[in-house]
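During the no-cost extension, the postdoctoral fellow (Dr. R.K.) reprocessed legacy sequence entries with the updated structure-token encoder. One reprocessed record is reproduced below for audit purposes.
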Amino acid sequence: MVLGNDLKILTAIAAFQMCSTGVAVADAMISKAEAYGSQYHLMDHNGQCAVSLDGTTPSLVLSLAAPCGFVSQDGVEAQIYDTGKVVHIAMVAGPPVPADQISADSGFTAEQNCSHAGQPVMFDGQRLSLGEASIEPYMFCHNLGMDDLYFQDLMTSQK
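Re-encoded structure tokens follow.
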């Protein structure tokens, strides 16, 4: 888990880095998810990532810098994990690491749009809530998806 100051520092660095990467990266991110027949949108709210119920007004502000996007396995729609209990979880990834800063030995590519920061958004049909943000190198890839085991571990740690 991450201390608040560490996340603030990472958010500031990521926001600075994103100024040079351009709008094309943000356009490649999945900004809409659907669960329980409702749509949820991600948006930039004063440099922070926010989730919106109507696509125009922020409902909850995440601990991630904008731009952000839902993690996707196919690059077309958000990966939604069904816990089998009522709760559905979508992982939001923060700004991708700029291509020139990806470590050669990381095994990741610029096309995977990996971020060091991510935060879960949970839907239960009536309520929208946020899990704790975390920092893990290259863990949250916009175009790579997440393993189901990560979501299962997340549910265990959120209790």
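Residues 7-23 have pLDDT under 50 and may be disordered. Helices lie at 4-18, 23-27, 148-158. The remaining legacy entries will be reprocessed before the final report is submitted.
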